Amino acid sequence: MASTEHSATGQTRPVKFILDGELIELHGVDPTRTVLQFLREDLRRTGTKEGCAEGDCGACTVALVELGQDGNSLKVLVVNSCIQFLPALDGKELITVESLVNEAGELHPVQQAIVDSHGSQCGFCTPGFVMSLFALYKNNPKPTRRHIDEALSGNLCRCTGYQPIVEAAQTMYQLPKAADDWLRLAAGGLDDTTRIERLKNIQPDSMLQTGRDGRAFFTPLTLAELIDLKRRYPDATLLAGGTDVGLWVTKQQRQLDHLIYTGRVPELLRAGVTNDCIEIGAALPISEAAPLITRYYPDLDELFTRFASPPVRNVATLGGNIANGSPIGDSMPALMVLETRIVLQGLGGQREMALEDFYLDYMATALEPDEVLVSIRIPLPDRASATRCYKVTKRFDQDISALCMAMRVQLDGDVVTAVRIAAGGLAAIPKRAPACEAAMKGQPWNTDTVRAGMQALAEDFAPIDDMRASAAYRFRCAQNLLRRFYLETTEGKNYSVYAYGR
Fold this sequence. Notes:
This protein is α+β, with helices and mostly antiparallel strands. Helices cover 30% and strands 21% of the residues.
């Protein structure tokens, strides 16, 4: 069948982005063609590898350069090209491993450090590691070992060559910086000022519509356009970071006819603090939302550190994690115990509801067909409350939870005046534990009360056996995590997993 560009309103425009200093314009783009496919199959830039095709291994890692929210600064972000759809590059700059060698053929300091430290064995994962280290090099001039570990947490080496790669990260700053011209086309004058101006020149001033063979990709620029698209295409797939939707295409081989990308809607990208809450736009990436949350709730730092990996957190959104409705979504238990409310908007206007009321059944939510999730409202903390969130997985980094459990307790002296417990991985939906809470509220905060709460968890949850954990293991973990929470709040200790290393 001949490819034809889709047009819903008679108006179309090309996808525009920058690669190696050159403007790329693509017409009639397949809505679900990935950046990785474009690089390898269309451009024959085969340095970027396909390992898992699901955003887990990091072999496909590339960097994106975007304008900061002030419009006069730059953000350098690593992403998984295997699950990023090509039209989402609109208005951005793409950097691949081939981009880093300059005109004179000099390796970038990151690449040279890998060579000098013997950080490449079979070499398959090396381009992805290089790109993750490149972003670290650009964003953090003096990283600690923990910063290095976190920057590399989305990259897997099957040869187990991590130590020399870490050594490369520690030595790359000591190498001559002459080769650090961002791109091989140094003669183009691609300093930060030039780069900012070039990005400004390709910022969209109208809604992107592209596609072929009756399938379409839309990028609305206002909330009104987004809601109108939902009205016109009620079965369209809303796309935020694509870290889940991408797998529908690469793993489930689903054909998505209409996609609506939320990443350009200003109303969904805002974040701030009011007199009583932290408000986060539903399309704000987790890498930007997490620091704001942990500023007020520092005990959630480990949860967000272990939330997938930097390439995922750079595009995945808090709103997407919530709206997806997965029973193992890591953010929801923590947000539930913080009494989070969400704002939905559709053709009939705006409404607000408690997050815990949003989930109706497995992968089913209270979202109406014409509605979108606009923002998340997290109440500011009460100084008298203690909050923790624990994630149980088979490995520290880049793993899906067998169980994620959050707890919050407020005491008057030694009496529990308020308590909230929520978990993911123990039921068909993320949910509160009302029986456990009732068993402890109004009681002394002691071992007897905690034992009663542990027993009451059986009334709240009936976990299942699956590939990640058995039902018995999940339930025992949940009970023990409640006891751990008690010990941490009474002994004044925080047993962070990172305290004893990755």
